[in-house]
Amino acid sequence: MSNRQRVLSGVQPTGDLHLGNYLGAIRNWVEGQNQYDNFFCVVDLHAITVPYNPATLAADTYKVAALYLACGIDLNYSSIFIQSHVSAHSELTWLLNCITPLNWLQDMVQYKEKAIKQGENVSVGLLDYPVLMSSDILLYQADKVPVGEDQKQHIELTRDIVNSFNHKFAKPNQPVLKLPEPLIRKEGARVMSLTDGTKKMSKSDPSDLSRINLLDSPDEIAKKIKRCKTDPVRGLEFDNPERPESNNLLNLYMLLSGKTKQEVAVECQDMGWGTFKPLLTETTINALKPIQEKYKAVTEEKGYLESVLREGKQKAEAIANQTLLQVKAAMGYSAPL
Ligand code: AMP
Ligand code: TRP
User: Fold this and answer.
1) 183 lines ligand 1 (CB under 6 A)
2) How many Å lie between the centroid of ligand 1 and the Cα of residue 22?
3) 75 near 38, Cβ under 8 Å?
4) 139 in Cβ contact with 88 (< 8 Å)
5) Residue 56: what pLDDT?
6) pLDDT, tens digit, for every residue of 124-144?
7) CB 3.0 to 4.6 Å from 92: which of 135, 184, 313, 331, for a disulfide?
């Protein structure tokens, strides 16, 4: 057993991964991974909380796992697995459901936003989504959960569940579940849409022009940046609330080029959009090229991804099943025969 702190995170296999997922989440997993013992799952049980296509679920799940490797997840430090392959996630969700007050879930911002979009067809699963996410985290007794800003509320809920569980079922000073902490980097935590600088870049936006996907071709990237929303002002600047597009695109340029905020602010302060857009295009294409090449290599090697996921599942399951046993014992269940 290593004595490093443990990290757990995941992304849903719904739609293509975009720059928001990469800059807000996966890039941070990669950068921090050598300090921690990491578990990264593809959360395919979360993917069915909204209408989805069963014909593509399995392939989409594999695609996200391959993208984790393509983005630089290193198996020396990290395990990659598929959430639905470890049945403890579903089982712990049921147990935690029974100690989670309904109104905690009804208060979740993401639930309210998604529920409005779906009108009458909201499933119990959509409401329960944060409890499943709590189970993902708690099964691994994770210390840190690296995510984008939008997931902070779900981690706070997880902490409330831990406190409530330990209070009800654990002996004083012998907690059964560990309190996790969110790991949210300021830069990249909220990448905005290319077509509206006040909205989050999202997989569920009906317009593909609103996001740059990690596997977009150079032509697609050029087209999207050419058409992206700008404003009539000459010269780009950070942090002007009246110029959300300028701030967002400068942030993208900063993160993808690796330059500092100060360098970018000076470089672009007098630039017109006609000069800036080709610069951002080239920078984006260059930043995504190594990811796309690695993705190709990973998916072309027959059997490789399966072997990574099989090993990941074994490591994950050993830990998850142990936590599940501890939770059930604390809740008063008899030991399995
Ligand atoms: P999801 O696409 O909802 O499965 O999100 C996967 C991860 O990407 C989570 O950690 C999110 O917080 C992060 N994420 C999604 N969209 C954005 C965005 N526009 N900006 C920053 N992070 C994001
Ligand atoms: N809810 C997260 C999102 O949409 C994905 C997720 C599911 C997750 N389980 C998790 C993230 C556990 C971190 C830890 O972004």
Assistant:
1) no
2) 8
3) no
4) yes
5) 97
6) 999 999 999 999 999 999 999
7) 135
Residues 6+ apart with CB under 8 A from 144: 5, 6, 7, 36, 180, 181, 182, 183
Residue with token string 């269940």: 333
Q: Is 289 a catalytic residue?
A: no
Question: Do 237 and 55 touch, CB atoms closer than 8 A?
Answer: no
Within 10 A of 278 (CB to CB), how many other CB atoms are there?
A: 12
Rg of the Cα atoms in the chain: 21
Least Cα distance to 170 among 28, 330, 40, 278 occurs for: 330
pLDDT digits (tens, 9 = 90+) for 26-48: 999 999 999 999 999 999 999 99
d(CA 128, CA 125): 5
Distance from C-alpha of 166 to C-alpha of 159, rounded to nearest angstrom: 11
Tens of pLDDT, residues 159-177:
999 999 999 999 999 999 9
Indicate the average pLDDT of the chain.
96
Alpha-carbon distance of 197 to 191, in angstroms, equals: 9
What does the alpha-carbon distance between residue 132 and residue 46 come to, in Å, rounded to a whole number?
8
- The whole-angstrom separation of Cα 139 and Cα 158 is 12
| Structure-token pair, residue 77 | 């430090």
How many angstroms is it from 21 CA to the middle of ligand 1?
4
Residue 1 has pLDDT above 70, yes or no: no
- The stretches of 237-272 forming alpha helices (DSSP H) are 244-257, 261-268
Can you tell me the distance from the alpha carbon of 40 to that of 26, in angstroms, rounded to the nearest whole number? 9
Length of the chain, please? 337
Q: What is the pLDDT of residue 119?
A: 83
Contact 152, 15 (CB under 8 A): no
Structure tokens at 254: 């900063």
